[in-house]
Amino acid sequence: MPMCAEHSNERLSRKLRSAGLRPSTARVHVLRYLDRNRNHPTVDQIYRSLLESLPGLSRASVYNSLAALGRAGLVRPLAMDGNELRYDSSVGDHGHFRCRGCGVIYDFDLPPAVSASAADGLQGFQVDRHDFLAWGLCPGCAGAGR
Amino acid sequence: MPMCAEHSNERLSRKLRSAGLRPSTARVHVLRYLDRNRNHPTVDQIYRSLLESLPGLSRASVYNSLAALGRAGLVRPLAMDGNELRYDSSVGDHGHFRCRGCGVIYDFDLPPAVSASAADGLQGFQVDRHDFLAWGLCPGCAGAGR
DNA sequence: TTATAATTTTATAACTATTATAAATTATTT
DNA sequence: AAATAATTTATAATAGTTATAAAATTATAA
Question: What is the per-residue pLDDT across B48-93, written as a single tens digit (0 to 9) for each?
Fold first, then answer.
């Protein structure tokens, strides 16, 4: 049974090219990692994981790739606290909830009306991107009484 | 005509006490600064400005004060990019828009329905706080054709 | 009021995430 | 295949934040 790595690479390369980006090794791997890991990883998590299959990969290259992917709209950054930046490959309209108990960041659906009516308060502004962020306790941690 | 500095201090001290915080010099000054500067200042901006009237003030003290004020719900942190943290003394429900042209962060009203219906997607979650963030170009910068 | 305890601040150092730089490499174009 | 442009690497520098211990302040109790 053949591995489909080449096919997957081809698909990702095409995705990068059609977004106007060269499909460099680092970019393909970063994009694939984010496609497969929908848990909003930090830059460090991405770097450490890719390093196993790409010895010699540099942190700067991961930062560069993420910045390029972000500019192209293929991924989006997520800053829920001041320090570390996380990345999300789900580009569709959804919000983010961070649990202060377990630290997990959950995606949640935004009714289309939310984004639309938020825009009502932004007449005359040109909105490139938006996000609805919430903090608190997830059902599990709330039940555990934290 | 008398200055009202003492009155102002008294008011802020009471505000701190009723929030369960000791009205230390640093906290009073940080809170007053945020009350008067609604432009979402960075920690560094707060520190540098207070240093003029409070020589000897340390950065750590500003960080400590802001953390205490944040826990008490008197101010709220705002992270619109990965690096620097800003603070907002408007605790009411509103969103934030950052212009990539001039860098200004604008407040905008959120129709009450927005927060309510966003909560629909968070059944079972206990939401402590939330924020609607948007990025793009403000009317002025959009007009200037950036 | 004085003594005691708890909290807060200061000064400093350490840490972490990110950005900048220049040389080497890689990909694209001619 | 050679030339050009873009990307990556390795390293250093920067910036923002957190940790630590001693000193100072504030609150509580005698």
Answer: 999 999 998 999 999 999 999 999 999 999 999 878 899 998 888 9
Question: What span, in angstroms and rounded, lies between the C-alpha atoms of A95 and A76?
Answer: 12
Contacting residues of A for B124, CB less than 8 Å apart: 138-139, 142
* Domain boundaries along the sequence of chain A: 5-87, 92-143
Residue matched to tokens 């489909």:
A4
Contact, B109 CB vs strand D, < 7 Å: no
Q: Which nucleotide is nearest to B29 (CA to C1')?
A: C9
Of A109, A126, A133, the CB nearest to B136: A126
Evaluate whether A84 touches B82 at the Cβ level (below 8 Å).
yes
Angle at A141 between CA A138 and CA A143, to 5 degrees: 105
Pick the CATH number of B92-143 from 3.30.470.30, 3.30.1490.190, 3.40.47.10, 3.40.50.2000: 3.30.1490.190
B43 touches strand D (CB under 7 A): yes
A29 touches strand D (CB under 7 A): no
Q: Which helix (H) or strand (E) holds B29?
A: helix B25-36
Which of B77, B66, B74 lies closest to A81 in space, CA to CA? B77
